[in-house]
């Protein structure tokens, strides 16, 4: 399967990018780099893609396993190299699950399946980053 996107310059430092979903997104540089901050930063968008890819896997597995989860979020901290081309060499990913009846074993299995088997964005990140992944359970 081939994905096709078109990214169009809207002037100054702003771009609009199509997506196979039909939803477009905007990218822009911050004021410190000559932009107006009217869109996502491209490298940070990669981190959102990583969280979204794995999050979709886990959400699907939560449904399939019929697990009780009140809330779920993924926090990412990534270190950007100093030299050009700058890239993320270290990425820490924290899965947070909230609820009164969390099945920690099954939720950990869902996270493990995503990071080891299903998430293609995770596999791409493995090519250039050292990944540290932790799961946190918050019982209400």
UniProtKB/TrEMBL annotation:
InterPro entries: KH_dom-like_a/b (IPR015946), OsmC/Ohr_fam (IPR003718), OsmC/Ohrsf (IPR036102). Pfam families: OsmC. PANTHER family: PROTEIN YHFA. This is OsmC family protein. It comes from Flaviramulus multivorans. The lineage of its organism: Bacteria, Pseudomonadati, Bacteroidota, Flavobacteriia, Flavobacteriales.
């Amino acid at each position: 399967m081939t994905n096709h996107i078109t990214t169009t310059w809207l002037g100054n430092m702003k771009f609009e990018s199509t997506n196979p979903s039909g939803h477009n997104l905007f990218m822009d540089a911050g004021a410190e780099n000559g932009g107006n901050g009217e869109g996502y930063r491209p490298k940070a968008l990669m981190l959102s893609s990583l969280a979204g890819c794995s999050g979709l896997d886990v959400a699907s597995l939560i449904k399939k396993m019929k697990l009780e989860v009140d809330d779920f979020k993924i926090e990412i901290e990534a270190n950007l190299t100093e030299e050009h081309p700058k890239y993320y060499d270290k990425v820490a990913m924290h899965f947070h699950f909230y609820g009164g009846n969390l099945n920690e074993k099954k939720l950990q299995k869902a996270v493990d399946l995503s990071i080891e088997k299903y998430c293609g964005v995770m596999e791409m990140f493995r090519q250039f980053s050292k990944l540290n992944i932790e799961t946190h359970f918050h019982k209400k």
